[in-house]
Amino acid sequence: MAGSHYELECVACGRSYEATELGFRLNCQRDDHPPAFLRSRYPRRLHIEDRHPGMFRYSNWLPSRRIPEVAGTPGVFRSERLGRALGLSRLYVVFNGYWPERGATLRTCAFKELEALSVCASISRREQRTLVVSSAGNTGKAFLQVCSDNGMPVIVVVPESALPDMWITTRKGPNVVLAVLRGNADYADAIALANRLAALDQCFPEGGARNVARRDGMGTALLHAVEKIGEIPEHYFQAVGSGTGGIAAWEMSRRLLADGGFGSNKMRLHLVQNSPFAIMTAAWQLRLPEVPTLPEDEARVRIRQLWASVLSNRNPPYSVRGGVFDALTDTGGHMYSVANNEAEVAGRMFEELEGCDIAPAAQVALAGLMRACRSKRIGNDELVLLNVTGGGSKMVDRDLQKHYVRPDFVFDASEVARKPIRVRLPELTRSMSR
Predict the structure, then answer these.
(1) pLDDT of 355-411, one tens digit each?
(2) How many CB atoms lie within 10 A of CB 431?
(3) N or C: which end of the chain has fewer CB within 10 A?
């Protein structure tokens, strides 16, 4: 039976659900508790399937209904040069990008390719509707690539500012649709438009952070690292916009602890945001269970100033049960806010010492690690994992061809809320392998 190897469990009330056959189950049916995530419950022991590609080696900890023929993988390595520069003797990098010399083969150069693969692999073959995904950039590019590779239908919605990053390394599939919001639009606007499109009869929503396939897919970056290292890291560093990747790492670390085969380290989360838009950092430093409310105009101005524009969610899953606040509380975690110039310096440092370019969000994460080292927040001999959530664009230019995706639909951000949504979708087929 599809999905029979796992169940979904509400973080707040513990109610269990079987996987749905069509669409995704995104919420608990009970309404007598605050908003809460559902979480996947898998067999306690991790079983590694070497015959499967990439992340699907960990398929018994993924909500997959099928296995694609091709799936990229992160690279994991001990960073000696960068480690020496930072005074860390056990610094490891999980490189979620394209760097074949280091074993990294994510052709979109982005961490989000893991979530796109996992989400698409979890969709039933009986599903006839079109998936709708919203993105600030990397998630959209990842779904364009994965769905084009595997013949899966999707509508990707991004703000116009993300359009220069909408390139893939294959030809866009006939069932792949890119919708762009022009004007002063950001990620929150893309989410709003995606929600309206997903409400159409022929569409269904991907669900964002509420989708366990998204979180569990991103969580496989930690599985790759732990398999290589042999134990759970003591510290985990990542840049965050919504915080979903940090939640994913936390959830996967809990499974690894329960498995018992990878030591007993309770991994501490270190999540980094890009100033001047760091609303979760501001909340966490005061131990507030909710993020502060910024006037919309002020939030838009701050987002436009970001070095890493993808770190720009105005409504992150911070206060939801099982969200960022709970993850930081459980792990005794920390949050940092770093300025644009700090991120730039960190990016140059990584490329000079390690030999590969990294994306702005990954530069933000490294800048946070550098700040933690300066403040002695981590010991020199402690086991540290840095998640480079994107990198290797120059390597793609060397080895592959970038195809820039042109929008199929363009919407005016000022009119979306008022006008009816009408789109003509192509005749759809669905052909992900196996």
Answers:
(1) 999 999 999 999 999 999 999 999 999 999 999 999 999 999 999 999 999 999 998
(2) 10
(3) N
Give CA–CA dist 431/151, Å, rounded: 5
The reported pLDDT for the residue numbered 21 is 74
Q: Are 232 and 253 in contact (CB under 8 A)?
A: yes
CB 238 within 8 A of CB 389: yes
Strands of 203-205's sheet in order across:
203-205, 130-134, 154-159, 176-182, 409-412
Angle between helices 244-259 and 212-229 (to 10 degrees): 60
pTM: 0.94
Query: Could you give the residue ranges of the DSSP H alpha helices within 66-211?
Result: 80-86, 112-121, 138-150, 187-198
| Mean pLDDT confidence for 267-275 | 98
Closest CA to 421 of 181, 67, 142: 181
- 172 residue type, one letter: K
Please count the CA atoms within 13 angstroms of the CA of 106 that sit on its side-chain side: 31
Crossing angle for the helix pair 112-121 and 138-150, to the nearest 10 degrees: 40
Residue 431 — φ and ψ, nearest 5°? -140, 30
**Where is pLDDT greater, at 77 or 197?**
77
Amino acid letter at 209? A
Q: How far is CA 142 from CA 38, 108, 125, 138, 334, in A?
A: 24, 6, 21, 6, 29
Each residue's pLDDT tens digit, 405-430: 999 999 887 766 666 666 555 544 44
Place of tokens 């793609």: 396
CB–CB of 114/106 below 8 Å? yes
Domains, the chain, in order of start with CATH, read 75-106+213-396 (3.40.50.1100)
Q: How far is CA 216 from CA 271, 327, 390, in A?
A: 18, 15, 18
Question: How many whole angstroms separate alpha carbon 219 and alpha carbon 248?
Answer: 5
- Cα–Cα distance measured from residue 131 to residue 428, given in angstroms and rounded to the nearest whole number: 11
